[in-house]
Please model this.
Amino acid sequence: MNTLVCGRANYTIIIVAVSSVFEKLIFCVCLQNNTLPWYTMGMDKTKLLTLINREGVMIWDSLCETYPTLVAYDPPKFKLNPYTWRTAGMCFQDLNLVELGYKFFKSNTKNFDYMMQVILPHEIIHQADFNLHGESEKRCGHGAQWCKMMLQYGLPADKFHPMEISRK
Ligand SMILES: [Zn+2]
Model:
């Protein structure tokens, strides 16, 4: 239930977020090659959470298409964890809550994309797995059903991530 990974559904999305004149213009384009926004740094937590929520709901919706019984459940809530620097994400299944490490998003654009494309679906699939199949046979949560769902979603069923960031 900690660390995490990504691929993505076939969305064609164009997101343009314009912040105040005092901040950088943020322009994100997500094309068919499944890459997510190239992100500028310095985005604040509220904006980041908005983006995570939007993306998270899309991931949940695509899981609902694959597993129709999931429709009975709300997508998980998302929270940023300001402290973690090794664990990129965590899913608290009994709370329907996914926590993501803020430091990873902030570290660089490559990690930002990895968090959105791999860690976010990884954690959401932990929740979906729990809703559909109950407690995993593996303590860490990376059991057979979770692995299957990851592969079905288009991601490797990998419980480790390659991001390295500093503690600060
Ligand atoms: Zn995990």
Remarks:
- Residues 109-133 form the longest helix (25 residues).
- The two ends are 23 Å apart (CA to CA).
- Residues 1-36 have pLDDT under 50 and may be disordered.
- The CA atoms of residues 142 and 159 lie 7 Å apart.
